[in-house]
Amino acid sequence: MLSQLHTAAKVVGIKQSKKSIRDGEARQVFIAQDAEKRVISPIYDLCQEHDVEIVEVPTMKELGTAAGIAVGAAVVTVTE
Length: 80
Known about the structure:
Structural class: alpha+beta
Radius of gyration: 11 Å
Largest sheet: 4 strands, mixed
Mean pLDDT: 95
Strand order of the largest sheet: 1-4-2-3
Distance between the termini: 16 Å
Strand content: 25-35%
Low-confidence stretches: none
């Protein structure tokens, strides 16, 4: 499932993901389980409100690598 992130249309990060979810562009949201809860909690709430699928990933490093970036990522959102 993570392999799709490298080539999928996506946004990386909390702010961009929030905007994408609110705008109805998000198809699927990947969230790193080791990210700070206060940071990712609003993403969980938005996903529930907008009926967006959540996929949990063990680490920020793993999520960042899957998304094709050189640093860890708390949230990566696959867009339409």
